[in-house]
Every structure is written in structure tokens, then in C-alpha cells.
Amino acid sequence: MKTKRMITAVCAVALAVMLGGCGEVPLIELTAEEENIVTLYAAKVMAKHNVRLAQGLVRYKGAVEEETLDEPVPASDTPEDASQEGEGQMAQTADGSAASTPASDAVTAGLNEIFGIGGVDISYAKAAFENDYVYNNYYHLTPDEGNCYLVMYFNVANTTDGAIDVDLYSLDPVFRAIADGSSYGSETTILPNDLATYLTTIEGKGTDTAVLLFEVPASGSKDVNAVGLQVAVNGTTYNVPLQ
Q1: 134 in any annotated domain
Q2: For a tag site, which of 15, 109, 182, 237 has the least CB within 10 Å?
Q3: Number of structural domains, the chain?
Q4: Are 197 and 175 in contact (CB under 8 A)?
């Protein structure tokens, strides 16, 4: 697995506490506002990735577990298999045309049709090629040397007057981007706004922004109008029109 350089305020505070306890460096003093940011972020990340909340923080989703804990899942039943790019899959580009890979059993559907959350509208906003990604000035992601990020932005809107809990995390969607005729899986992050693990409450008539990050070669064409998106959910792979 690729190693990413992730710099967060949470890590800085944890490191300062450990070193400060040994008398090597003084503790970093935070304002009340900074402490609230760190606490809120840490609590949200723990709750987001705690798949067994009643039992405490048992495991991180996707971590390797002992075989005795869970029955092995047949490979044919996993959504990852449906997302693998092969000779028989089609890539849907932003303008609705097919990329260079041939079409097969993948179907075309919008995000609202795929996820079907009542009262919630998930729409594609834009894409950009970036050298790094920073979330709220305290979470920093950088790609491997020679690569950049294809960042896709989405709007998640509550169209009702009441609050709605939006949970894409439990659906375990697998996203892939199509760029320059090649397929790239989305980055695994603990970003609170990661669409692949999106889990939050949106107040009535409220709108939130979510993202997907894909690491792609920096030498690519970087044509945001020619990128495509696929998502695999419950064993079915969908081509998502980007309009």
C-alpha cells in the first residue's frame, strides 16, 4: 500500500504530548478554538470509522482481521471485483461519450438513483487536478512523486425542512475515475468529507460539500472535461454521468 504524507493538527498535538512528557520539547499551547477543532475532528473521525459503536472502537473498516472473527466472503460477492477495470468494462466520460475501453455490463445511473437517499440530492460540481489537498487547514495530503490528485467535488443537499442522516459509509461504495483512458481507484482517507465514507447529518435545507481524490500521473492531459466516474455498489458497477 502506498505511503502518504499526512499532516494533521491531531498528529501534531499527539507528538507534542509524547515528547513533552519526556522533557524534550515544551507542549504546544492551543487556543480554546483550536482545542475545539482538534477535539471535534478526532471525535468525528472515530465515530465515522467505528462500525461497532456500541462495542467501542473495535476496528477500522478495511483493516485485516483474524479469520476467526468473521467468515471469509467469497471473492465474487465483493464490490471490489465489480470495480476492477478490465477488457469488458466501459468508462463514461464527462460529456457522456465512451472512453477507449469497450462497453460491457456496466449500467449508467446518477448518484441519486444509485444511493437512493430520500430527501437528499447528491450532484457532481466540478473536478480539478491539484498537487496536494488540504482540508480546513489542518489535514494535508500529498501524492507520490510524479503524480497529482484528480479531485472531484460534489454537493450533498438536504431538500427537506428536517435534519437527515446521510450514510454512504455503510454501503461501502468503490469509486474509480477514468482519465486518459486509464482507471484509478479513489484514495482511502479519513477525511470527514470523503464521499466514499460519507457519514454526517445535514440540517434542513442545508448543503454540504464532499470530495473524491484519485492519484493520477502528473504528466497526463489534465483535461477535466474528459474525466469519467464509475462506482460499484452491492456487486453492480455503474457509469456515473458527470454533467
Answers
A1: yes
A2: 15
A3: 1
A4: no
